[in-house]
Structures are given as structure tokens and as C-alpha cells.
Amino acid sequence: MELPAWFRVNGNLIYNPPPDRTPQMIRLLFIDRTLRALTGILKEFIQAEVYVQKQGMLQGLDPRGKLMGILLLIGSTSLLHFIPLLFALYGLTLILALLSRIDPAFFLKRVLLVLPLFGGIIALPATLNIFTPGEAMVTLFSLGKTYQWGPYFIPSEITLTRQGISTALLLVGRIATSLSLVLLLTLTTPWAELLKALRSARVPTIYVQTLGMALRYLILLSRVVEERHLAKKSRTIRLGKPWQEQRWIAGEIGALFKRSMQISGEVHRAMAARGYQGEVHLLNVFRFQKKDYYWAGFCASLAGILIYFGR
Q: How far is residue 119's CA from residue 175's CA, in Å, rounded to a whole number?
């Protein structure tokens, strides 16, 4: 059987169009990059499960004691005002990650990728004398004169102040340390055991179950989105008009919403048929050992020292 003529015509790939169709290529690559990022999140979550099974320091601790110790350190971090002590605590999190056999590059990447988004946006403006008046350290540029609109005042010279830099370092240090402590907890504790530890800490059942189900089905639905886009991409012969692609995306959003509602109903009926009454019971039993008491005592002592000397 001979192939049709349109199939045998040589030309550029559909996702590598000629220059006159560059805007369409950019839109399509944007969708690809977005779905690739979602897939990356899924792969990182699966990869994180590998660290749970390693024989490290934190992996061998009781999840309840580990949770209470991490919460104590996070609470003391939020009360620290002495910057060197704060970054020393951040260095301790790196040591704990190494002792728990967590890849340092993997650990640092997960912190440093989030830190500029949440810390940098707030910390950088705080270094300027517009927001934090104080002793000038570096002059960025001069406006020639001062400006004032009601209670708002802009000085003639925009500078970095010593007080502003200290405030920014304090904020960035708190975010980095707290995020690192949370990562240590999640990377060394199975998700089901972490949820059970939260229940042991008297966190209401509805919050724990919502958190567990949301994460599990967010990953599932992201996989569905990627598969449907890949299916369309593999069956596309030529690019459609923008309104056709937008119509398809709108239809997929509606289909995904319908699918999520259907899955939620099926999961609830399946859980009710198996005797679910609002509480998930795990077969493994938590037992405190001597090393768990050592860990709890270490965290409580360190938190007290940090609060006392870091005021």
C-alpha cells in the first residue's frame, strides 16, 4: 500500500516550524515546558521516596519524636535574632542531611530554588533606605532631590542600609533554615507515617486526611494532564488555528475537572465499602527507643540555647 502524498512531503517538524510561525512554536513549547516541569515534580517526589528507605540517622528515629524535634527547632528559628547563630543552625541542617545519607546537591537545590521566590522578593526591597532607613552602606544611584507624597517619602539618594541588609539576612536565614528542617522531615519519613505522627500530635483528622489525599491525587491528575497532551501531540498532523487550540485546552480543563470529581466519588465509595469511618489505621506501631529520647533531649536543649542566646 502506497503512502499518501501529504505523508511523503518533506518539511520541518510540527514543533520546529519556519521563522514565520515562531509565535506558534513559542506557545507550544511553553505548554511542553509546563508539563515537563509538572513531570519533574512527580519524579522528584518519587526520588525523595528513595531517601526514606536509606539507613541514615533520621530515618531510624520514631516519626513522632522526629516531628516534635523538628517543630521545636523551627519554632526556635522563628525567634532567633542573632544572624551568626541562625546560619550556624542552617549548617547543622546540612550536617543532618549528610548523616541521613541525603545527596547534598539534591538537598541544596530544593532549598535554593524556592528561596529566591519566597525570600528574595521580600528581602531585596528591605535592604533599601526607602523601606528601611539607617546607616548607608552602598549608594546605588542619586535622584537629585527628595520626593514626598503624603506619608510616602523617597530620599535623594537610594542606598543599601546596614539595618536593611541585616533584616534581609535574618529573613533569608529563617526561611532557608525552616525550609531545610521541613525537608529533612519529609525526606526521611514515609508519607503515611508522617501523617500518622501528625495525628499523634492531635492535628484534626480532617486536615491530615485532606493533606494526604490532596498530594496523592495532585500527582495523579498531573500525570493525566501530561498523558492527554502527549496523546494529542502524537496525533497532530498540522497546527490548528489559535482559537481551535484554545478551545481544545478549555475542553480539557472541563474534562479534568469532571475526572477529578468522578475519582473523588469513586475513592470515597471504595473507602466506605472497606469500613472507613474517618480514621486511617496503619499496621506498623510506633515505639520510642533510647535514640529517640536522645534526639528529643538534643532538640529541646538546642532550642532552649538558641532562644536564650539568640534574642
A: 7
10 Å CB burial of residue 24 (0-12, 13-18, 19+) is middle
Q: Name the band, by pLDDT with cuts 50, 70 and 90, for residue 45.
A: low
CB 224 within 8 A of CB 310: no
- How is residue 40 written as a grid cell? 519533574
Residue 2 DSSP symbol: P
**Residue 206 corresponds to which cell in the numbers above?**
480532617
Distance separating alpha carbons of residues 202 and 101, to the nearest angstrom:
30
Tens of pLDDT along 220-262?
777 787 788 778 877 777 767 778 778 888 888 888 888 888 8
Q: Does residue 164 contact residue 135 with C-beta atoms inside 8 Å?
A: no
| Other beta carbons less than 10 A from residue 100's beta carbon | 21
Contact 38, 225 (CB under 8 A): yes
Half-sphere CA count of 177, side-chain side, radius 13 A:
27
Tens-digit pLDDT profile for residues 269-310? 887 888 777 666 666 667 788 888 999 999 999 999 988 887
Give the β-pairing of 136-142 and 157-161. antiparallel
